[in-house]
Amino acid sequence: MNALEHSTVSEIAATYPDSYRIFHKYGIDFCCGGKRKLSDVCAEKSIEPRAVLGDIAALAATADNTTDWQKKPLAELVEHIISTHHAFLRQELPRLHALCAKVARRHGEDHPYLLQVFEEYCIMSEELRQHIEKEENILFPVIVALGRGGAAALDISCPIEMMEHEHEETGAHLEKISALTHGYKMDDSYMCASFKALYTGLADLENDIKLHIHKENNILFPRALALLGR
Length: 230
Ligand SMILES: [Fe+2]
Ligand SMILES: [Fe+2]
Fold this sequence. Notes:
Elements: H1 9-15, H2 19-25, H3 38-45, H4 49-62, H5 74-107, H6 113-147, H7 157-180, H8 193-227
Helix pairs in contact: 1-8, 5-6, 5-8, 6-7, 7-8
One fe (ii) ion is lined by residues 131, 135, 163, 167, 216.
């Protein structure tokens, strides 16, 4: 396990299906910024890489019901991403938009950063809406066909690069929203129920998006490119 110290975070996340939970615990970016060596990321954060790898090994030893997406057919992984993560976005993005608008309207005067949160959220939400449409209509059908042994109807390396770039943009929006809200820190002295519900919703959204991007960047895209010998 310790030999993995010099592997990238993405490689470890792809090999150990539950490792994202440990990366999350240590504040290690496992989705957009995952292409860096664990040893480098740990040095930057003053974390002992062996502690991280030890936690991953312990979790792997106890996990018994995790789906290993490295081994499932690509069509199944694509279907899972659409029915779980894209469905979540389609449900949550409009709900949080309304909630964010309401909280910004009510509390924006006393807490002007809420107006920035709303602005950032609107841009991210629209980008994500278009992003999942592109994946479902253009990229995913080609990956499914490839996974079933068919020929690629188009060169998927460019669309994959584009999707990865868009993931980075989403990651930057999430980082900004998290910084503006001090990591969704609750304060009972001035927060109403809607205010708190917004923070809970945004934190849940961030967690789901990170897991979603991890499955695409670290598992789906590398597996699809490997079928093309890339
Ligand atoms: Fe997606
Ligand atoms: Fe995506």
